[in-house]
Every structure is written in C-alpha cells, then in structure tokens.
Design goal:
Elements: H1 4-23, H2 25-40, H3 44-47, H4 56-63, H5 69-80, E1 95-101, E2 107-112, H6 114-120, H7 122-134, E3 142-146, E4 153-154, E5 160-162, H8 164-169, H9 172-175, H10 186-189, H11 194-207, E6 212-219, H12 220-243, H13 253-260, H14 268-279, H15 286-290, E7 296-300, H16 309-316, E8 321-322, E9 325-327, E10 332-335, E11 348-350, E12 356-362, E13 380-381, E14 390-396, E15 404-416, E16 419-427, E17 430-434, E18 437-440, H17 441-452, E19 460-470, E20 477-486, H18 497-510, H19 513-520, E21 528-532, H20 536-546, H21 563-571, E22 573-578
Parallel strand pairs: 1-5, 3-6, 6-7, 7-8, 20-21
Antiparallel strand pairs: 1-2, 4-5, 9-10, 10-11, 11-16, 12-13, 12-14, 14-15, 15-16, 17-18, 19-20, 21-22
Helix pairs in contact: 1-7, 11-12, 12-14, 17-18, 20-21
The structure holds adenosine monophosphate (AMP).
GO molecular function, one term: acid-amino acid ligase activity
InterPro entries: GH3, GH3_C, GH3_M
Domain GH3 middle: 348-427
C-alpha cells in the first residue's frame, strides 16, 4: 500500500536520516538543483533562460530571474485551464495546493507533482519522531489533534486544488500512519462541516481523555478557537457523554457512524467529572485538568501565531508548548529539533531535501514594523548564510517553481550539522494578522483608499489612519482608527452610521480571499471602525516622540503593536461602527 514502506523506513531510521540530511546539507542542495535543472531545462519557462549547450547549473543564478507569484501566474493559469505541455515542469502536474490569498482576492494555486507531494509527506513523520524522542511518554498514548479540511475546488483542467493539509489527510500514508495514533476518527476530520467536525473531535477527545498524551492543531489559532468552542458547548458535550446519545444536529452520516463506535454507552461519572472541571470559574490550566496525561501542546506558535502564546499558556497550566515545524504551500522549510525550547526561542532546522533554498538578505532589525524590511543584496545559498542575519526565503521546488519568493522572513540562529537553523520572523509587509489571514500594508491602504471615496462628496476628509488586530475576544477582529474632519475646517463631521458602516463594508470587501473566507467562517469578526477627533493622532506622535522617535522621520504607524498607543487613540474616540453582520 502507498507509503507503508516509507513509514516503516522513517520510524526505523528516522534519526539517522535526519543526521545524514543535515550533515550533507550542501551536497544535497547542489544535487537537488542539478536534478531539477536536468529534468526541466527543456520546459517552456526555463528554456527561455538558457542558451543551448550552456551549463544550466552554472548559469542558473545569473539567467533565471527571482520571481513572485504574480510573475508566474500566467503560466499557472494555463496549466489550470488545461494545457498539458511542459510549461513549468517536465512531469505532469497532478494537483494544485491552495495557498494564502493573493491581493486580488483569490487563493494562489501552487502546482504539485505526485513525486513532490509524496516527498513532503515525510516531514510530519520526522516531526513526530523527533517529538517522541525528546518528550518521554508520547508513544504511550494518543494524540488529540484538532484537524480540519476545506472543500476542494476543481480547476477547468479537471485538476483539483485544495489546502495541503486537506490533501494530506486523504492519503493512505496519513490514514495508515499518524491517524492511527490520533483520537479523532478520520471521518470526523474529513467532515466538511467544520462545526460538526469540531464537536465530534472534542467529544472523542473527552471520551478518551485518559489516553491522550498530546494535544494540538496545525496552527495555534485553531487550538484557541477549539477552546472557545469547548466553552460554548461543554454542557451539551457532557450531556452526550452522560446519556450515551450523540446530539441530533450531528447529521453527517460518516461522523455519526464514526462516533457510534466511540460513544457506545452512558458514562455519567465521566460526565460529572468533566462538568465539575468546566464549571470552575477560571479556566486556567483547564487542558491539564481535562487531559491529565498530556505531555505537550503541539501547534505552530511562532510568527503571527505568537499572539496566542499567553492564551495557550493560561489554558495549558504549565504544559510545554511545542512549535513543530515551519513551511508553506510552496515548500516545507524546516522542523524544530528541540521541541522543548521556550516559545520565543524556537528555531527550525532546514530540511535540505525539501527544495533548493536561496536566501535574500534583508535589512530587518527583526522587530517592529515589517514594512521597514527591504531587500539589500543578492541571494546567498544555504552554505553561505550568516548567523544573526535576516533573509527572505526563495525556493526552487520539485514542482515547477524557480527562484520563487515565498515572502517569509527568517533569522538565522545557528546550524545543526551543516544545515542552517532559523527563527521565523514574519511575512514581508504583513501588518494585520488574525488566524491565517495576513493583511499587508498595501492591502490596507488600498482598502481604505476605496472606502474614503464615499466620504469625499460629503466634504469629509480622512486625515490619518491606523489599525490593530483586536484578539482580546474570540473571534478577533481588525479595528481601524480614522481621524476625520471637514474640508476647510477642523470641525468634526456629523457621522451618519449608515455611511460609516458602508465604509467598513468596502474595506472588508477589498480584503483578500483568506480574510473573506475566515470572516465568512466566523473565525474573524466584523471589522470595527473607530472615529477619533481631530488632534488625536498628534497626541500619538507626541507619545512616540516621548519614547524616542524622531519627529522629522515620524510616520504614523499603519498598525499599532503597543497597548498604550491603542489606549491613547481610544481616548480620542467619538464614534464606533461595525461592518454589516450580514455582509458575508
Ligand atoms: P500557506 O501557504 O497558505 O499554507 O501559508 C503558509 C504560511 O504560514 C507561511 O508562508 C508562513 O507565513 C506561515 N507559517 C508557516 N509555518 C509557520 C511557522 N512555523 N511560524 C510562523 N508562521 C508560519
């Protein structure tokens, strides 16, 4: 059966494989580039950059341009529309992976071949192996992973496009491998109704609480959402456990069928115990109480996900948080070889067989606003990165991406054998982020430019704006601060609620595909617009100057990271408006 050999090989020799990969990182990278070029030099895309008889590898970096998704989109669109010639890759493209949205509001489509897809499936096995080696007791129970899928989309060519995880959960290698150690039955993971899926997975996790040694999700945001769901549904879950009957609204036949072999009888004692724990006013340490054998919480908690660390630490009650890996739809970058490192010290080690990596140096100081990040130099390869420097990742993949800027910024922190280790810094230019949404400064400015057109005929001017991601409540929302005045005077305009709400709607409408789908799914709440009185942003400037900013270089931040700054703007607030609830 597909993948069984690989699973066995990795479980038997995984640590040795990792040692070999990292010790020979440079050679593996060179071989990989050579192989990709030999196989694909004749493709329509690459052949333009090479003169016949030239050494492809030697000329790769001088001839092949560094590109973004927008540059290669026309080629990808042709494949999606059914052209089968070797446009980007010699082997047939077998599917697309949907990646986080583009600024035009559609997901990126990342081509995949059967071979590249299979190669990637090794990563979760390696991650699992490293965790089991470093955290004792993990192999003595089950993992309560909250996994979800999204509907696939068919392209005109008939090739399917789906999230990487959705495709992965449907493979035999997952079903016959990791899934066997998970509490959630595969049919509850594959249920397209996320609410029914979440309910059944939580119910299973509670029923099997004594067996659970690890709890997790792919991203920390998902875990945060799951805890919120538990807050809303624990009474009903307890009632199902008490009576042994599954709630009627779980209508998905596959879910009901899967649950029938788990919820087999009334368990009033278990229900009482869970009820007693959940009735407690404070949910501090609830994970430890509900799942007493849990050894770690596994979820990505770096980059924009670090906003969930305090929350997970609060609910976890001292259980270690593990951020297992780092990657994107385009390629897997690395895994965490020290799972027990502290959340803010997490480094990932590059897996050199996942793609050919180049690193564009950027002059980022690593903190503050990412729009200060600019590319300053030519890319270097894996052997030449320097500890302490920041780089944007550029990948050449086994599925038709050549010198492709992923957009993520990494800081090199060291080496494991010959493989660089890095901290994830943040996507370039991202200013607002909740869950998987990443709204850039440009997205925000375009959206606001559109929305303010509504105010102009009324003689109202938007003088300055800022924003922040309010995640104090779940689901979180983006909040905009607008300083408004009448043209020709500093008077505060009369604020018509309908018009202001229309502005909110235009901003949301202009955001990308990812934002809209998260908003539709209730993962992000309606956008809020807070109007502040004239002069409020001057006070903000005074505040930053008092903190050491230079007046001559001062630029109002388009996104606020400091709570004090948010408080200050709130003091000047004269009205608050929300997007229409029915918008999505
Ligand atoms: P997607 O291509 O839609 O799956 O999104 C992948 C993106 O998620 C990456 O490009 C990163 O921006 C982000 N990401 C993935 N892994 C991590 C990580 N370990 N820490 C922070 N962000 C991550």
């Amino acid at each position: 059966m597909a993948g069984e050999k690989e699973i066995k090989e990795i479980y038997e020799n995984g640590m040795k494989i990792l040692e070999e990969l990292t010790s020979n990182a440079h050679e593996i990278q060179e071989q990989m580039l050579e192989e990709i070029l030999i196989r694909n030099a004749g493709t329509e895309y690459l052949s333009r950059f090479f003169v016949h008889g030239q050494n492809h590898k030697q000329n790769f970096k001088t001839n092949v341009p560094i590109v973004t998704y927008e540059d290669i989109k026309p080629y990808i669109d042709r494949i999606a529309n059914g052209e089968t010639s070797s446009i980007l890759f010699a082997d047939p493209i077998t599917q697309f992976i949907q990646s986080t949205g583009t600024s035009e509001g559609k997901p990126k489509l990342i081509p995949m071949t059967a071979e590249s897809f299979e190669k990637r499936m090794v990563k979760p096995l390696l991650v699992d192996l490293v965790m089991k080696k470093c955290i004792s007791g993990l192999d003595q129970g089950k993992s309560f992973y909250l996994f979800f899928v999204k509907p696939e989309m068919e392209t005109p060519s008939g090739l399917m496009a789906s999230l990487y995880t959705t495709s992965y959960f449907k493979t035999q290698i997952f079903k016959n491998g990791l899934a066997k150690f998970c509490t959630s039955p595969i049919d509850t993971i594959l249920c397209l109704d996320n609410k029914q899926s979440m309910y059944c997975q939580l119910l299973t996790g509670l029923l099997l609480r004594d067996e659970v040694v690890r709890i997790g999700s792919s991203f920390a945001s998902v875990l945060a959402r799951s805890i919120k769901f538990l807050e809303d549904y624990w009474k009903e879950l307890c009632s199902n456990i008490r009576t042994g009957y599954l709630s009627d609204w779980i209508a998905d036949p596959a879910c009901r069928n899967a649950m029938s072999s788990i919820l087999t009888r009334p368990e009033p004692e278990l229900a009482d115990l869970i009820q007693q724990i959940c009735e407690d006013k404070s949910w501090e340490g609830i994970i430890k109480e509900l799942w007493p054998e849990v050894k770690c919480i596994s979820s990505i908690i770096t980059g924009s996900m670090s906003q969930y660390i305090p929350l997970l630490e609060f609910y976890g009650g001292g259980i270690p948080l593990v951020s297992p890996n780092c990657g994107s739809s385009e390629a897997c970058f690395g895994i965490n070889l020290k799972p027990l490192s502290k959340p803010f010290d997490v480094s990932y080690t590059i897996l050199p067989n996942m793609a050919y990596f180049e690193f564009l140096p950027v002059n980022n100081d690593g903190g503050g606003m990412s729009h200060e990040t600019t590319t300053v130099n030519k890319p270097v390869d894996l052997a030449n990165v320097k500890i302490g420097r920041y780089y944007e990742v550029v990948v050449t993949t086994l599925a038709g991406l050549y010198r492709y800027r992923v957009g993520d910024i990494l800081k090199v922190t060291g080496f494991y054998n010959k493989s660089p280790q890095f901290q994830f810094v943040e996507r370039q230019n991202v200013v607002l982020s909740i869950d998987l949404d990443k709204t850039t400064e440009v997205d925000l400015s375009k959206a606001i430019t559109k929305a303010k057109l509504v105010l102009e005929p009324l003689g109202i001017m938007l003088t300055t704006y800022s924003s922040y991601a309010d995640t104090s409540l779940t689901p979180g929302r983006y909040v905009l601060f607008w300083e408004l005045k009448m043209k020709g005077s500093n008077d505060l305009p009369k604020l018509d609620a309908k018009i202001m709400e229309e502005c909110c709607g235009i901003v949301e409408e202009s955001f990308d595909f990812t934002y809209k789908s998260l908003r539709k799914g209730g993962v992000i709440s309606a956008l809020e617009l807070r109007v502040v009185k004239h002069g409020t942003f001057d006070e903000l400037m005074d505040f930053y100057v008092s903190k050491g900013a230079s007046i001559s270089q001062y630029k109002p931040p388009c996104c606020l990271k400091s709570e004090e700054a948010v408080k200050l703007l709130n003091l000047g607030m004269v009205g608050t408006f929300f997007s229409p609830k029915t918008m999505f």
